[in-house]
Amino acid sequence: MKPLDMGERTTRKRYRQKQYFVGIFAALLTVALSGCGPGQGEPAKQAVPHHSFVSHPDFAPPPMDITPGPAWRPDYEESTDLLFLTPIFETDTPSSGAMIFDSRGELVWMVPSDPADPTDNYFDLRVQQYRGEDVLTVYRGTRSGGRGNGEILILDQSYEPVASVTTAGSLGPDKADFHDSTITADDTMLIASYAPVPADLSALGGPEEGMIKDAVIQEIDIATGEVIFEWSATEHIPLTQTLLDFDVERNAQTDDEEELGTEGKPFDYFHINSMTEDHEGTILVSARHTSAVYRLDRVTGEVIWTLGGSASDFDLDEDAVFAWQHDAQRAPDGTLTLLDNHARGTDDQGASRALRLALDEQAMTASVVTEYHPLRERSSGSMANAQELANGNMLIGWGSQSHYSEHEPGGEVIYDVCHGESCYPDNVHGRGTSYRAYKAHWQGQPSGPPRVVVNQTEDEQVAYVSWNGATHVAQWRLIAGADEATAIPQARVEAETFETAFTVPGNAQYVGIQALDAEGRVLATGIPD
What is the SS3 assignment for 202? Predict the structure, then answer.
């Protein structure tokens, strides 16, 4: 795979609005010019609006539509924690890719996907710890049929790769799936993969000599790439535990698809979507297609218990029953959190929610501690996650619904943010779903300087500056003059948006823009190429 390419106030407020409305104006203009669209009185479909930047013309992130909830307080808008997303759009703009936003919805950092490269898809961007330092981890690779083959990149605070983790041993390289990657306290990483293996599917209504996707977990030593532990679903979980109806899946296939359960289209009976460390060195695994969570012995691989699904070892209260879930995690207080999709494939099969469950592992019972619901009922047919924050709040990524929301410990909504087609009327399309959403503290210091572009018109010169990924910039200062030696400060503005614009004195031959921290110290200086 290719290297990762990182690569006054009134005036600024006007410019910020200009950025926001570039995509919206383009979409509305196209609607006006296209008339009634494909049907009488039916407007044509338009792409999701997007931001545009002079200094980064390759960046086209979506705007963030923030709706306060009942638990909203103004200080949430001033939070220094950042949001981490990997939106996927089905149109040329906005950009798909890995993105970081601040609490006001302003872009902080991004690396866009190359739509011409099938291996350049990004999933699951988040902050983890490696060798005692904060790092970013993100999947890059293919995506097809709800699975992927690729690698997990580990980036330092300058956004430079420090390691790449992928499958090894029996699976070979570059088979890491995009659903999850967990760095452990031992600086290893838990990753998942799918391997086609023969299986008798007759009990499910499929061929006797069929093929399935075996769900495999590997624990990889990050420094060496060696496999420390490997677990196979087919060795421990019977095919009959699947809740995926083989006949229904087969009948839903199109004529040009390979027959289900064959080498060309193995049946995905299990489908791992999270694996994390649990107490006493065990592993928690969430399997979507069995609607169950499994606790595994780290040494033998044996299943210690099963929660949910058709073979549950727990008696679940009626309101605790979940289905097609994602992201099972053990919380610090011993409860278990997950995202209960309660729908599969489409977004109209059931209301989704996040859950906190109390597990009595002596009596083997499970009950609801907290439910987390959106402002309005929302059905997420795929993807999604629930991240418990350090203050006890819950950050929920709604997966196939292009939203994330934060909730108080009791479940009340603090805010809900939309970042895709569901923010707009029905004539806007392009999706914009993010597999997961995370919130975390992150300090970024890019290795290169700020990027500066100067545009000359008949009336004026305007300099545009941005510094992709920088989190310490408090102000920008324009310096200009006849040359670098005689250049003097001309203007200073607050750093409020991803890109800042300055009007340059007409006689300036040298232009530089300095990034200043909160104490006024110069962090770096950018000059035009």
Answer: helix
Number of residues assigned to the chain: 529
Checking if the pLDDT of 6 tops 90, the result is no
Per the structure block, which two tokens stand in for 146?
A: 């709800």
- Beta strands 403-407 and 413-418, pairing class: antiparallel
C-alpha to C-alpha distance for 406 and 439, rounded to whole angstroms: 9
Strands 46-47 and 428-429: what pairing?
parallel
Rounded to whole angstroms, the Cα distance separating 180 from 118 reads 20
- What is the layout of strands, in order, in the sheet containing 283-287? 272-277, 283-287, 292-296, 303-308
pLDDT of residue 43: 63
Check residues 77 and 220 and name the one with the higher pLDDT. Answer: 220
**Which helix (H) or strand (E) segment is 358 a member of?**
strand 353-360
Helices (H) and strands (E) in the chain, counts: 2, 35
Tokens of residue 482, six digits? 């006849």
Give the C-alpha separation, 341 to 323, whole Å.
Answer: 6
Q: Whole-model pTM?
A: 0.92
Check residue 233 and report its DSSP letter.
G
Which residues are 140's β-sheet partners? 122, 151
Q: What are phi and psi of 416, to 5 degrees?
A: -130, 130
> In this structure, how many other beta carbons lie within 10 angstroms of the beta carbon of residue 162?
15
Phi, psi at 16, each rounded to 5°: -60, -40
CA dist 499 and 60 (Å) reads: 12
Six-digit token string for 236: 């421990």
| Eight-class DSSP state of 63 | P
- Mean pLDDT on 472-496: 96
User: Which ranges in 348-450 belong to alpha helices (H)?
Assistant: none
Report the C-alpha gap between 7 and 158 in whole angstroms.
10
Answer yes or no: are the C-beta atoms of 528 and 477 closer than 8 Å. Answer: no
Name beta bridge partners: 183.
189
Cα–Cα distance measured from residue 431 to residue 141, given in angstroms and rounded to the nearest whole number: 20
Residue 11 DSSP code: H
Return d(Cα 436, Cα 329) in angstroms, integer: 14
256-266 burial, b if ≥16 CB within 10 A, otherwise e?
A: eeeebbbeebb
What is the mean pLDDT of the segment spanning 416-440? 94
Peptide bond into 74 cis (omega under 30): no
Report how far residue 286's alpha carbon sits from residue 300's, in angstroms, rounded to the nearest whole number: 18
User: How much of the chain is helix, strand and coil, in % rounded to 5?
Assistant: 10, 40, 45
Query: Can you tell me the distance from the alpha carbon of 310 to that of 318, in angstroms, rounded to the nearest whole number?
Result: 15
Please tell me whether residue 503 adopts helix, strand or coil conformation: strand
Of 330, 226, 350, which is closest to residue 278 (Cα–Cα)?
Answer: 330
Q: Using DSSP bridges, classify how beta strands 315-316 and 365-372 pair: parallel, antiparallel or unpaired.
A: parallel
Q: Which two tokens stand for residue 427?
A: 């004539």
Tokens in use for 201? 């599917």
207: phi then psi, degrees, rounded to nearest 5: -70, 145
